[in-house]
Structures are given as C-alpha cells and as structure tokens.
Amino acid sequence: MRNKCKFFMKKLTFLFVSMVLALSFASCERNNNNQPQNEPEPCRFHKVTLDLVVDQRDWQFDNEAQQYYYHFDVEELTADIYNYAELSISREFNSGTANAYQVALPMTNYLEEQVTYTDGTTGTVYYQQHIDYRFGVKYVEIQVTNSDHIYAAENPESMTFRMQLTY
C-alpha cells in the first residue's frame, strides 16, 4: 500500500510541475481575435511615466458640462497601448521636492469658501472638488468639477499629474 501511495504522489508531483512549465511557456501568447493562437507574440514589458503639468491660466471651462478641463496631446498613447496597456494618472503634490507625494485619480477634495450674502452677512459654504480624467488614442483630458458648480472667479490652481503606462 505504501508503494502505491508513493507512486501516486510522484505522479501528482510530475503532473503539477508539468502544468506549471506548460503555463509559463504559454503565458506570452496573445489570445484575442486579432492574433491567431498558433502565432505567439514575444513577451514584452515596458513602463513609461510622463509628467503632465497644467498652469492655472491654461484651464479651459466647458459651459455645457460646467467643469474645467485641460486637453493633453500624448503621442505615447498609440492604438496598441490604448487597447492593451494599463494606464493610471495621479496628482502629484510638492513636485520636485523630497516630500513629494501622489494621490491616484479620481480624487475628491473637501473645500470651504467664505461668502458674503446679498443681505451683507457672511458665511461658510462647503463643497467638493472632483478631479478625474479620460483618455483616448493620442490624448488625455483632466477634468475638475466642483459640486453645485461653485467656482471662484479664477481658474483652478496649477496642478501636476503623473501618467504611468505599463505594457
């Protein structure tokens, strides 16, 4: 009985190792409608980080959507990268300093503003600022939307964003 058990365990170990090896050799094959399964694509891994900076004066206002936006032309966003890459964008604070940090988009800031009402009294208005993005082939657009569409007389502040592509 012990010999049968040892033989069975050896057989299971051999099958497990064989499956792991088979999966590792097949991991780079493309499995979609654009590439025949019998033609493997070579393995590749690339990463690109781009800094996207919006100066305060460059924000545009979309009257229909009631939000600020900035459109970046990004040559690195090819159709292949659009279809197969991972893309993330973060807002970077304290850029170029030892205490720089990033917050992944979308992000929401909770803000307050002192206002003077028509009767001359003052008060505090609380609102949210939501920062998000959308992208397509060759472009990224950053969007800044305030809740209740409360906007100061000037554009949003200058902002630095970091776009990271992995493909």
Note down, in words, how this protein is organized.
With 167 residues, this protein is an alpha+beta fold. 19% of the residues lie in helices and 43% in strands. It has 2 helices and 9 strands, in the order αβββαββββββ. The chain has helices at 2-26, 79-84; strands at 47-54, 60-62, 67-73, 86-93, 101-104, 107-116, 122-136, 139-146, 159-166. It has a 5-stranded antiparallel sheet, with no helix packed on it. A 4-stranded antiparallel sheet has the order 1-9-4-5. A hairpin with a 4-residue loop joins β2 and β3. The chain starts with a helix and ends with a strand. 9% of the residues are buried. Mean pLDDT is 85; it is low at 25-33.
- What's the main sheet like? 5 strands, antiparallel
H/E element sequence? HEEEHEEEEEE
Give the helix level as a range of percent: 10-25%
Please tell me how large the radius of gyration is.
26 Å
What's the overall geometry? elongated
In which order are the strands of the major sheet placed?
Answer: 2-3-8-7-6
- How far apart the termini lie comes to 52 Å
Beta percentage is 35-45%
> What is the residue-averaged pLDDT?
85
